[in-house]
Every structure is written in structure tokens, then in C-alpha cells.
Amino acid sequence: MNLGIETEILEFKKSTGELKEAMYSICAILNKHQHGELYFGVKPDGTLVGQIVTEESLREVSQKIGNFIEPKIYPEINKVVIDGKECIHVKFEGNHVPYFAYGVARIRVADEDLQMSPEEITDLLLKSGREGNRWENLISNKLVDDVDEELLKRYTRQAHEAGRIAIGYTDKKTVLNQLELTEGNSLLNAGKALFSDDLIQDIQMAIFATNERLTFNDIQRYHGPVLKLVDMAEAYIKSNIHWRAEFTGSLQRTEIPEIPMDAIREALLNSFCHKDYSVGQSNEVAIYKDRIEIYNPGTFPEGFEPQDFINRPERPIRRNPKIARILYYSKDIESFGTGLKRIADACNTAGIRYEFKKLKSGFVVCFYRSEEKADKKPIKADKKPIKAERKEIIIKYLLENGSITNKEARELLRLADSTTKRMLKQMVDEKILVIEGERKSRKYLLKRQ
After folding, report:
1. Interatomic CA distance for residues 440 and 382, integer angstroms
2. Which of 134, 147, 159, 186 is nearest to 320 (CA)?
3. Is the CB of residue 25 less than 8 Å from the CB of residue 113?
4. Do residues 314 and 391 share a domain?
5. How far apart are CA 359 and CA 361, in angstroms?
6. Higher pLDDT, 270 or 438
7. CA nearest to 230, candidates 192, 258, 202
8. Is there a single domain that holds both residue 156 and residue 254?
9. Average pLDDT value for the chain
10. Which of 91, 248, 267, 376 counts the most CB atoms within 10 A of its CB?
11. Alpha helix (H) ranges present in 351-387?
12. How confident is the model at residue 383 (pLDDT cuts 50, 70, 90)?
């Protein structure tokens, strides 16, 4: 028996082995027509093949839809028997466009599910006429219980000390609700991005052997809460750039980075603040011989140039205003719409050449490196026993646990006590870590700018 051809509101899948592709089809049909049907057990040409249907397979389809399509939909999922063959029939509808499957928005064109461009998503939002349809305002697949409580406590304390919020930490649900990051017991996407772990929040960091994007000496990829990723990327750059030593009148040694770390951190925060989370691409840090590039998959506002926000007081244009507001509360960003000017000012003061690059796929902040020799070479190139890989292990541990003692670091790295102490001291000198407590109670924490 043949069920006919696929249409813009009808999709066939041979089996539930194509569940991920089915999620894309449901998302695409919803974005185009707000309703549709899908059958498992039917070939794309309409040929009925059937499949074994159990309670477990029905539940698996339901869970995939519930976990990976945003905003939530509540489809009808049933076992049907057609011409003696068992199939799964999914009937779905939803008006809260745009819909995302695995963090990506698609749209139906004939029988294809095409990925939407950032401009198309924006246009769909405008046509829907609903501010609530922004990605960051949609209900996510994460719950309040998924929030990193230590990170939320640290954030609340920082925002309170900055004088930008009056609330103190009580419990996760209360604080997140006061920050307007929840809907019932579910996190909005903004809350998920900032305070929970999810594959859609990720960063790729690499050191390239030359000035070209060809051979790399090191590559790392991490996912997690945005605030942790910013700290991790900042520490990675700190460990792999040149530093020089300056001595004050009191002979106190001061380490000066080749690129202002204030500008680096501002660029990292901007890259996550203005990221287009709907396209499913990674943020990137690329360290070349002659430059450092920080990329985010979020196109620059149409009709504007970066200089418009440096030379003239243009009004801020925020892709993710809720995320920007949360970062403003904690003083991670000083004020709205000033990020590019702050980067430019820091680089001009330090005599560093910089460039803002508008790409079709996103936006790049580029810092050009000095050709002069530094007093301290990148740690990756250092042949001493204290290796950057060990530091990255410490940084990852701190991002997950908040603090580390000398004993914990020694056991984690399986090093001698003297080697561990030397490494931790070097990380403090490089302003990667700070010390809390004295002697036996001493702990090390990541330094927040």
C-alpha cells in the first residue's frame, strides 16, 4: 500500500531510527504552517513498510519531542495499523513560532526542512508580533533543579555587591523567579544559557601554528553555563599570550599582557550576549601567531557599522536583552551598547591594533599581537615542567567545584607538593587565580574581573 507523496504538512519516516530528523521536520512544518502530521513506518515515497510499535517506542517519540523542540508542544502520538502494518502517527500543532529543534530553527519548503537564517528568524518574530517569541524568552528543556547553585549564589552576591539588585540569595527557585528567568518550574532559555549546562552553550578554543587556519597546536571544546565559559576562555587566553614584566619604584613586579585583558573579557562577554543561539553554532577563540580572534554566531545589526557604536551615541541594539540585563546586574557589562567602545578605548590606550569584522555567519573581534619579544613567552611554548594542560585541568575543576586546595590539586594532578605549589603560585601571579584564607585553610579560586 502507498500513502502518497510527502507535502508541506505531511512527513514520512521509515522508522524511529530517524527520530532526530523527525524533530527537524516537525519544527519546520510548525514554522511554516503551525500544524502537520508525521508517520513512522513509511518510506519517503509513501511506501508502507511498518515497524514494531511498543509502549517504549511511543514513549521515546514523546520524550524526544518534549526534550528537543522549543517552545513546548503537546502532540497526539498513537499506534495505528494500516493494511496490516503497525506505524506511529504523530499529529501536532502550535502557534508560538519560531520553533527550534536541537536549538536550530528550520522551515518547510515542499518536502525539505531548510535551516533558517538569522534574518528569517527575526522576520518571523516580527510577523508574529510577540516579544515573548524571542529565543531567550522561550521555555527551555531545563528545570530549576538543573541550575548550578554555586554559580547562582556567586552571581547573586556579585550583583548585590554591585548595587544593581536588592535581592539576596535564598533558594534557586525564588532567585530565578525574581530575575524573571523561569516559567513555573522550567527555565527560560536565558536562564538555561546563563546558569545551567547544555550543549547549545559551547565554545571552541584553538591555538594555530601559523597565521592561517590550518594546523593547530592545541584545540579545546567545552560546554556549560555562559558565565563559566567566559571565565574558561579568559583563562585560556591568559595562559597562551605573551606577558612582560615591569617594576615599580618599590621593585614590585607587575605582569603586563600583550593585549589588555579588560578588552579580552569585554569581547568574550559580548560574544555570548549577542550570540544567535538559534543557529546551533559555537562561539570560538582562535589564537594565531599574529592575532587573536573572538567569534560569535550572531550577525551585526543590519544598516549599522561597528564605528557607529564607537564614534556616535547610537542606541543599543540587543539580540538577547534578557541575557544582557542579567549580565548588567552583576556588572559583567558596565552599560548597554558600550562594549565596542570599551574594547576600542582599552586597545587604543595600550597601543594595540584591533579590528571588528562583519561576516555573513557572525561577528569577529580581532586583536593584533605585537611582534616585539615579551619577557614571558606563552606557557604552551614553555618547556618547564609546569604545562598549560595541567592549568586547564585546574581551571576545569574550579569551574565545576568553585575552589581547590593545594592537597586537592596535588591529588588531581598526581604531582609532588613543591611542583603543585609552584604551579598554583604561578597561576596567582598570572592573575588566573586568587587566594582565599591562610595557611591550612588556604583555597584557590578563579579570579573574576
Report:
1. 31
2. 134
3. yes
4. no
5. 5
6. 270
7. 202
8. no
9. 87
10. 267
11. none
12. very low
Distance between terminal CA atoms of the chain? 66
How do residues 178-209 score in pLDDT, each as one tens digit? Answer: 999 999 999 999 999 999 988 778 899 999 99
**Is residue 262 a part of any domain in this protein?**
yes
Average pLDDT of the segment spanning 102-112: 91
Residue 347 has which C-alpha cell?
A: 586597545
DSSP per-residue codes, 55-81: HHHHHHHHHHHHHHEES----EEEEEE
Distance of CA 374 to the CA centre of its chain: 32
**Neighbour tally for 109: CB within 10 Å:** 11
CA 189, CA 182: separation in Å to the nearest integer? Answer: 9
Q: How many domains does the chain have?
A: 4
Do 28 and 48 lie in one domain? The reply is yes
CATH assignment at residue 301? 3.30.565.60
Using the predicted structure, report yes or no on whether residue 238 has a pLDDT greater than 80: yes
Domain that holds residue 158: 137-195
Band of residue 375 on the pLDDT scale cut at 50, 70, 90: very low
DSSP 285-347: EEE-SSEEEEEES-PPPTT--TTHHHHS-PPP--SSHHHHHHHHHTTSSSSTT-HHHHHHHHH
Whole-structure pTM value: 0.61
